[in-house]
Design a protein that fits this description.
Layout: E1 4-5, H1 8-11, H2 13-16, E2 18-20, E3 30-31, E4 36-37, H3 40-43, E5 55-58, H4 60-68, H5 71-81, E6 89-91, H6 99-107, E7 112-115, H7 119-134, E8 137-147, E9 150-155, H8 162-171, E10 175-187, E11 191-195, E12 203-206, E13 210-213, H9 214-218, E14 226-228, E15 231-237, E16 252-256, E17 259-268, H10 274-289, H11 294-311
Parallel strand pairs: 4-5, 5-6, 6-7, 9-15, 15-17
Antiparallel strand pairs: 1-3, 2-7, 8-9, 8-10, 10-11, 11-14, 12-13, 16-17
Region (Important for the catalytic mechanism of dephosphorylation): 267-272
Protein name: HPr kinase/phosphorylase
Active site: 141, 162, 180 (proton acceptor), 246
């Protein structure tokens, strides 16, 4: 089963608004559960079904409880509580744990964090972070763009024009997510999301120009950090010997991380405006998603006309 070490939380500390307060803690403990645990029952001595393998979240209520009990009365429940191999503890609302609590945590090298978030906000952000970290993922070569709200992964051999196409799409008001290396994560077992590479970020390599920064040239509105992948478009050099789809009646898919994604192939040759074709593909995809299939309607109308002509 996939796991994430506790130290990975610190890499996203800005979003989680986390601060580690015991520096000698064991940060190599592993998180395997997306859900969190509110330890109110355990602190009152009820440890049946105690989810010690989850991050323990101390909200206002739990913090008030451990802060109001006299140290001599708190010692026994803390002794039992920290006998479990707890992966990590988070106090929300910037609340600081009592000295005795922190002493037990340090003795057991249990990581203790403080978050500025209110409890519900922290749980939402944390579960989203862990869901992405524990989800199946892969790295694919290609360029991910958002066109008319549709996440399109453009693929093709090197030199076919993926980056140049993305540049033209950005100039036409669409957004770049990632170029060259796209990190893809499967969420909920049915949705694929593409993420920008932290190394490449929002840069494009354009032959003859070199490396350019899309965010610097076109502004923050021209880039996105991630986008759900709805459609894959393969660009390939035009092959006169190959039969290309001219009607659009057949739907093709490609499987990535167990998820089927709609796919189409666009042949490239001088004179073909590939960015406009991709814009049209995105709009047509939106129409199909709403149940409007122009190719099928055309076929049905043509069949009806032929049938009526034969009957007359």
């Amino acid at each position: 089963m996939k796991s994430v070490k506790v130290r990975e939380l610190l890499k996203d500390a800005d979003r989680l608004r986390l601060k580690l307060i015991n520096e000698d803690a064991d940060l190599d403990r592993e998180l395997r559960e997306i859900d969190v645990n509110r330890p109110g029952l355990a602190l009152n001595g009820f440890f049946e079904h105690f989810a010690h393998d989850r991050v323990q979240v101390f909200g206002q209520g739990e913090h008030a409880f451990v802060s109001s009990i006299l140290p001599e009365k708190l010692q026994e429940p803390l002794e039992r509580y920290f006998n479990y191999p707890i992966t990590g503890i988070v106090f929300t609302h910037s609340n600081f744990p009592p000295d005795l609590f922190l002493e037990y945590a340090r003795r057991n090298r249990t990581p203790v964090f403080i978050s500025e978030h209110r409890t519900s906000k922290f749980i939402n952000v944390f579960t989203d972070f862990l869901d992405a970290a524990l989800a199946p993922q892969t790295l694919l070569h290609g360029t991910l763009v958002e066109v008319s709200g549709v996440g399109i992964l453009i693929q093709g051999k090197s030199g076919v024009g993926k980056s140049e196409t993305a540049l033209e799409l950005v100039q036409r008001g669409h957004s770049l997510v990632a170029d060259d290396a796209v990190r893809i994560i499967c969420r909920d077992g049915s949705r694929l999301y593409g993420y920008v590479s932290q190394t490449i970020e929002h840069h494009l390599e354009i032959r003859g120009l070199g490396i350019i920064s899309i965010s610097d040239l076109f502004g923050a509105g021209a880039v996105r950090m991630n986008k759900r992948i709805d459609l894959i478009i393969h660009l390939e050099d035009w092959d006169d010997k190959k039969e290309y789809d001219r009607l659009g009646l057949e739907d093709h898919t490609e499987e990535i991380l167990g998820v089927e994604i709609a796919v189409m192939t666009i042949p490239v040759r001088p004179g073909r405006n590939v960015p406009v074709l991709i814009e049209t593909a995105a709009k047509n995809f939106n129409l199909k998603s709403r149940g409007h299939n122009a190719a099928r309607k055309f076929q049905e109308r043509l069949s009806r006309m032929i049938r009526e002509a034969a009957e007359s």
